[in-house]
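Note to self: the last two entries modelled the partners one at a time, which told us nothing about the interface. This time every component goes in together.
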Amino acid sequence: MKYKATVVIRLKKGLLNPEGKAIKKALNFLNFDVEDVDSYKMLDIILNAENEEDAKKKVEEMCKKLLANPVIHNYYIKIESLSQ
Amino acid sequence: MKYKATVVIRLKKGLLNPEGKAIKKALNFLNFDVEDVDSYKMLDIILNAENEEDAKKKVEEMCKKLLANPVIHNYYIKIESLSQ
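The predicted structure of the combined assembly is written out below.
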């Protein structure tokens, strides 16, 4: 069965996001009334798995092994079936 | 009024996403049965605007002027009110 996993990887609360801060400054410089900018990353992963639970488990393993740094990142996983 | 804009910035269809390809290769190397990986960027922007329409117009202008490259990127904007 084919699944699409959407993974959100973002910095934990309280950690400085230099990219967001830089974007905020640039927007303020362009006269936009912006109070805060936070940037984060999304991944769409197409994978094969036995069922939805298995897919979620696999993607969680991917996050732990490669995609996210558990010291600084939180991640959220959404699984969607692509098969009929 | 305060609004939160969530902006999705992703490469147009058909354009090569080297980051996604690199992640896919790394996952395959770790024995994950992954068929495709697409990566993209999200921004949460807290801004002041008169109403929802005004907020959307402002964020669209930000995208055009700074956040996205119209030649290679598509962007989607969702506006959410933070005021009561």
